[in-house]
Amino acid sequence: MNFGNFCITDTLRRYRKDRSGHFAVWFALLGLPLLASASYVIDYNRALDTKADLKGALDAAALAAVSKQNISESERAIYAQDYFNENFAKANEFKLSIDNRSAKKVQLSATGRSPVTIAAALGIKDIVVSEDSSAIVTSENVVCVMTLNPDGRESFSVYSGARFRSPTCAVQVNSNHPEAAYVSSDSSAVAKDFCIVGGGSGSFSPYINTECSPLQDPYINKVAPAAGPCVSLLGANVSVKGPTMTIGNNVVMTPGTYCQNVRVSGKNVRMLPGTYIMKDTEIWMRNGSTLDAESATIVLEGKFARIYVEQGSVFNLSAPKTGPLAGLAIFQNRAVSLNDSNKLPNGSSSISGGSKMSIVGTVYLPTQTIEVYGDSGYDNTSPATAYIGYNVSLGKGANLAVKVDHSTAGLPPILPRSDEGARLVQ
After folding, report:
1. 2 inside domain
2. Which residues span the domain enclosing 83?
């Protein structure tokens, strides 16, 4: 067939011999797989980003849930789910499994699918993404200050230029009040941890942990020795007037039950090792006095029993290393120290400005407020001390430094232990 100078037969013959256009044909045939492969790399990287976000959300939810100690297991599961939903943008596309929801360990896992684009044309529908996380509560903190007030405001307070320092131990505040702990702007409080059942405000370092549960009083079942016959100290430097016994220079006190208020006004006063029961009486270190007591426990018994350390006095007390009161320097007999109405606190024991007091062991005043105020150089040298009171208050320039090296002190381990926090284990 010939159309003028155009011959169809010749044209077909030349086309069969021509190879220059076959690349386009092959490219057309291979283009879709190549494009799908390239897009799958992008899809896979997107899935890796989703996996990283998923891991972060699971870790955060596990830590938050196990730190929430004051809720039931079912509530903890709901809390973990809500926390996960709030912190993972694709939460509705993933199934969260709560494999462990106990107060000691929370274990979470989640599975979902990351979509693909052009790769779907090759039968690849999506990419499975899964992750898991576990967090546990660590309970290795030694508590060196503990307040037992269950619902009071400012159960632990530091104000008016006071300073509190316990970098190796924790503060436990059992009050569930929204303002259970307070540090004023001109004061400071430093501890390994501040575990507050309720809430608080102020200059805490680190900031308070408000996800804590109350700790049980470690000495609630401790029984104090029974009171015996009243001690009568004799000597030229001991005077008795009415209900008060005044102790002057160089007096050696003996263990036993003291039924009169004790005023230590002299220097070089010493307590022999043993138990000193203050039966409904006060023991008062007056200005300029010095009292040293080694391997001794002062027991406050009765609703009027108190201990006061005045400005300018020096009081050094170390607890017994063995025996029923081992580690206890000052012990209040809770059973016989409540007032008629059982309203708490029912009094306070205090350290005044300018006094120097070193206590090795635990001060246990479960129904009283422990007060430290007025430029007190308090416990800067003691290797191991703990304070357990109904409330604890530092004010007016007080300076309280606390350490808990019981091994150096030769005492039993300081109690109690607190929830340090949470850490990831997976």
Report:
1. no
2. 19-137
